[in-house]
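Quick one before lunch.
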Amino acid sequence: MTECKECKRIKVGRDYEDADEGALERAIVGALHIKDCKLYLVSFDRGRNIALVKFDCDLGGQHGTFEKEIRVRFAKSLCMKCYRQKSGYYEAIIQIRGQKERVESFMSKIYRYNSRRGGFVSKMEENGDGYDVYFGDKKIIGEFFEKNKRYRTKQSYELYGIKKGKKVYRTIYFLRLE
Ligand SMILES: [Zn+2]
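Model of the zinc ion complex:
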């Protein structure tokens, strides 16, 4: 089983998911593949990394079930999100300036919105009467301003590369709160 060493999510198929019971079952069962058997995760001992797996098998017309303890090995990895965060990747910058309390309240709002949607912040710098905040996913930030139209931003774009033949831009938002 592959686990992200930063956020502790586990790899299920191609994506990383929070390591709840459902995800653990899908990851363990997915790694075992036993012909003619259905597998279920009965329990998982996180301290010893032992999974109790129930096998429900049809072998030559004979049906049988049994349970077996399986030791799960965790390979440490870094998921794409944590990799990008660590390497300082960003797609959008918000340059927020203005009156201290309003800036602080805006900051906690956008941080909450961003992290609830699985986004991350790569960098934050104090700058004059505000901050420059670097966000990993510009879609989330675009959505936020779409939903909160009372924040009137000035936008500009910065070309940062070409992906599949298309130019890719970072979005820079400037916001002043007086
Ligand atoms: Zn991660």
